[in-house]
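queue> holo job accepted (AFP)
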Amino acid sequence: MATGLTLSEQFFRDQAASGASGDLSTVLNRISLAARMLASEIMRAGFVGKLGLTGDSNVQGEQVRQLDIISNDIVSQVMDHAPMIAGIGSEELEDVYAMPGSEHGKYVLTIDPLDGSGNVDVDGAMGTIFGIYRRPEERSGLPADVADFLQPGRDLVAAGYVLYGPSTMFVYTAGGSVHGFTLDRSIGTFFLTHPSIRIPEGAGTYAVNEANESEWDDRTRDMVATFRRQQSRCGPRQARYSGALAADVHRILLRGGVFMYPPTSSRPEGKLRLLYENAPLAFLISHAGGAATDGRRDILDITPTELHQRTPLYIGSSGDVAEVQRLLGPGRD
Ligand code: AFP
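queue> job finished
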């Protein structure tokens, strides 16, 4: 149920509470604009023939869809009007995009413009995941480069995701509570519908791609088998997996449970990317009372050494993430 408070009003409330200059509010407002443009593109993509693959691969070696390119272009164009953003680290770009004329920008943006784009052709949920870091002061005046981005998730200033499902939702934290806003498409405005979200404790659903089982190590296999056998609040634990991280984390944020992307023999570092998937979602979930780990370390404590670094990910309620840690045990390599 909408409360009548809009997303931009919430940004200004955050700003007033922290005595900030308004630069962060501007960045968040631009992300919300990109999200509304993207929601509209996604909705029309089938009509105007923008589904399907481009035939190219991205820096991750993954096939690129037309909407991946469109999403990345929208984000870059919208951020051109946010001079406080010095650079963007995107899933779709091999190198940092240094914003022209923004050498004195005090923030950098990490973003997965269209997370779960594999769902586009089947009308499945997708997302945009973002994180905003303050640039190291000594780098001010220099064009943004990768050194600006190699910061642990704990240093994020704000993070969140947009979910393109039956409704479009904007969920974020600027270091305080986690709030969720739903887009009223008829007037193009996000309204607060989920104030101060706290992730429910107690065994919820588990989300993991079980087709990877033959590539897991024994501990991972045993751990998932234990989750499968456990009882939740309302009977046996159920599995739910959508192929879009933002959608799975959204479900877990509202209902409890845990999402897992363990290492596999072909991907010993896991699949998901630290800077624009794992760390922003870990920051958000921890501000909602949950937790995230790579199996050994809190995701928020990992300082990346490269832009597109991957880590395993276990994210969800504190109890379920502690259970993952307990089952995986110490000394996991
Ligand atoms: P795409 O953005 O390439 O569709 O990948 C989605 C994703 O990064 C994440 O959103 C999913 O949770 C995960 O990959 C799904 O990966 P599997 O297909 O290997 O289960």
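queue> The chain has seven helices and 16 strands.
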